[in-house]
Design a protein that fits this description.
This protein is an alpha+beta fold. The chain folds into six domains: 2-87, Ubiquitin-like (UB roll) (Roll); 90-165, membrane protein fhac (Ubiquitin-like (UB roll), Roll); 172-255, membrane protein fhac (Ubiquitin-like (UB roll), Roll), CATH 3.10.20.310; 261-338, membrane protein fhac (Ubiquitin-like (UB roll), Roll); 343-414, membrane protein fhac (Ubiquitin-like (UB roll), Roll); 429-742, membrane protein fhac: a member of the omp85/tpsb transporter family (Porin, Beta Barrel). It starts with a helix and ends with a strand.
Amino acid sequence: MKLIIKLLLLIFFINSISFAEILKEFKVEGNKRISSKTIILFSKVKINDDINESNLNEIIKELYSTNFFKDVKVSFSNQILKITVKENPVIQSLIFNGIKKKNIISTLKSSVELKEKNPFLKNTVKSDETQIINILRSNGFYFSKVESEVKKNDNYTVDLIYNIELGKKAHIKKIKFIGDKKFKDGKLRNIIVSEETRFWKFISNKKFLDINRISLDKKLLKSYYKNRGFYNVKIESASAQVTGDDNFELIFNINAGKKYYFNNLSLNFPSDFSESDFSGIKSSLNKLKGEIYSLKKINSILKEIDKLLLDSDYSFFNATYNENLYENKLDLTINLTESEKKYVERINLFGNYITNDRVIRNQLQVDEGDPYNKILLNNSINEIKALGIFKNVTSKASKGKSEEFKIIDITVEEMPTGEIMAGAGTGTSGSSITFGIKEKNYLGKGQKLDANLTISDSSVTGLFSTTNKNYKNSNKDLNTSFENTSLDRMSSFGYKSTKTGFSLGTSYEQYKDVFFSPSFSNYYETMKTSSSASSTRKKQEGDYIDSTFNYKFTLNKLNQNFRPSDGYKIGFYQSLPLYSDDLTIVNQFDYSKYFSFLDEQVFAVNFLLKTANSISGEDIRVSKRLFIPSRRLRGFEAGKVGPVDSGDFIGGNFASVMNLSTNLPKFLPEVQNLDFTLFIDAANLWGVDFDSSLDNSKIRSSTGLAIDWYTPIGPLNFSFATPITKASSDVEETFRFDIGTTF
């Protein structure tokens, strides 16, 4: 018996050995479109390989995984590997009948699994039909129907045709809020994204039913309630019910629950930390006691702690918190604990097909090999956004070669960075037109080019400027500008002047958050007058050369340069004469402060003080005198306020400006990308060193509404302003309009 078993095992072993043969030849059959060489390549075996039974199974799996074949047979005999295939046809055309809008067709083509030039898989058609339905519903076509059709062609390809019946768009007729909701329906409707259908909402797509959008609505509602004390809020349901006219009624069932208030708030940190470092945090926590619970307020405290830890070089500490509820009170405990030490292994960049890697990496506050820090990473993302050359910027951190390393993926979406602009202003004394062209990312190097031409009733100004970020990897920006201004007021005030020159400068961070910007400028000016000119102008007739050294210090404590909502910025500028016919020194101080309040509302305060005075005791030239920019004093025409000589605005030695503004709630949420800003401007321009009798010092003020509308053709900017106080000689400009488009 034992002998028989041994013989059988020997036979099996011999057969196994005999089967494991060397591959000497391929034979491919059944292929019509795909070449034999390609099929052999797909098999992942080659001549002189050992072939056995398991190899054959792997070959079949590999060939099926390509999706090019609906049937595969493999055999091996006499050192010949025979592969017989039956190919799947290839999709030649993907057709969506019943759809006219190119953007929807493009979305459908990118969303379905079956694509042109790819194999046709019959089993995938149904899932793609479902995907098409979902996309159409998200575009408001809730009652759409899809049927697929396959048309065979002579070249073993097929046309995959989706016959679509869009049906009527599903409008949201009514949005209701039921249950223990605590707030009025009108307020809650402003919180969510979905909108009721109204005749004036012809632009908005949010009035159409979108199931995916409803999920976002639920999150927004929950966040709104949790920031107003309702810790245990539940959105019990969100349902869409068909009305009699095939439209929908959207109903949210809300259970707000009990309102909670902050009670005891404490901060725990390691004993070796300096308690004085956290006195500000403890003060902020104490102020919260007795206030309504708000998740937003907690996150604000956590951000404050994160910033403190970062500034104190506690790279591997983070803040977590615990909440304890009882009655209607909540105790909050924040704990500072040491986190795992993680370092940045690698930073990958994606999506920058035009922009050089260097342009993006120059904005990073974290580098490969540094400790991984979420705050610095978020700051880096904001700095990249502030370049103004990307539509979207996202980041993702994943595990590196080990647990202590992180790989950061930064993905950017490039946008058109060229911009053609046109602007117009109307006032009681005339009009002005501005044309301009900008390029924010010249040759993908992040270089900015700006050329514009402004034409008014009496002047023509041309300006060309460049900004080269991180010039030759020096961490310094290189700025250049060339300007020519021609002012012809011979018929009205008896003088004509031209000014031509250039400036060259740089800018860099000298200390943390402190930036230094030195520059050199040189200008040539000539002025001609007639007998009708004022005595002031007649004194200024002649040719002049001015060379100056200029510098500016800026302390930037804004939370972000891109649309800041918190923090402040302080700047000091000075211009010193190097060579000039009259030695004039210019000083400027500016301050900006931002406050966030309520629901994403931002209040801004901007202040400017500027002086121009002679250091030689001589009267300064009229062309060097100060004027208030129209953007800082809306409601008045640029250069048409302040001291006047024989009807001519001659500027002043001193200027001060205060601007208060706040963005308004989205009371027209149906109009996308529309921002409203309410503002109050106040300014004064005074001081005439050569003739004090011409000084008409008076505070000018105005209030109004600024509208920024970002449309497909470019940004539209409207400004409506009404003067509150003014001098009798000031010239008003109640409306201004600007339009731009990108390329």
